[in-house]
Amino acid sequence: MENNLSVRIIPWRAEAERLLLSVPSSRKPALRRSLREDWLFSTDLPRCASAEDCLRFQQSAQAAGWDAESSGEWIHLRKIPFSLPVGWFSPAVSAEAACLRALLLRHPGTADPAVELLMLMKAREEGNIAWKKACRSLHREWARRLREGKPLPEIRISDGNEWPDLSPEAISLPVAKE
């Protein structure tokens, strides 16, 4: 039986779905985890909406802080968070996640986190088995980096103040703080 992962539909999916619903189309566009490692989601909106509506969607997505790129009959989306929600690295979720949390707390990173964050976000949404596998993979990679004197990715773990309510109806994404 799969553990209850406090967030199965990640907040970014809910936001992307809301953006898609604002576009007139002949059917509900598909939104899936991207098969490309450098993108979070892909949508087939170009198959069911006009080129003008697709362009408006991309502009709306970019205004909401998303990167959007059109590629044939797909639009790829990604949004790199400033921090991950509370509970994602809880020992109750998996020992692998707890190890990642310990590494991040002991060795604050400076490397670009994009690929690792997208990998974690996709795995978290997919479920417990994918989450554990991603955490194991990153744990090995990060241990290798530390042995070689290379930095870890710059991933912050939220203190909870940025993510007060993760329900799809009340998602409030963090704002950059300087």
Q: Could you please describe the fold and organization of this structure?
A:
With 178 residues, the protein is an alpha+beta fold. The chain has 2 domains: 11-78; 83-161, no CATH class. It is built from 5 helices and 6 strands. A 4-stranded antiparallel beta sheet has the order 1-2-4-3, covered by helices on one side. The chain has a two-stranded parallel ribbon with strand order 5-6. Helix 3 (95-106) packs parallel to helix 5. 28% of the residues are buried.
Considering the chains and any ligands shown, give keywords for the structure:
disordered C terminus, single chain, alpha+beta, two-stranded parallel sheet, four-stranded antiparallel β-sheet, 2 domains, 178 residues
What are the low-pLDDT stretches, counting only 5+ consecutive residues below 50?
Answer: 1-7, 160-178
How far do the termini sit from each other?
A: 42 Å
Number of structurally distinct domains: 2
What is the strand arrangement across the widest sheet? Answer: 1-2-4-3
H/E series, N to C? HEEHEEEHHHE
Indicate the proportion of strand residues. Answer: 5-15%
Shape verdict: elongated
The major sheet is characterized as:
4 strands, antiparallel
Query: Total strand count, please?
Result: 6
Q: Could you tell me the mean pLDDT?
A: 79
Which range best describes the helical content: under 10%, 10-25%, 25-40%, 40-55%, 55-70% or over 70%?
A: 25-40%
What is the count of DSSP helices, taking H or I runs of 4+ residues? 5
Which class best fits the helix and strand makeup?
alpha+beta
Radius of gyration: 17 Å
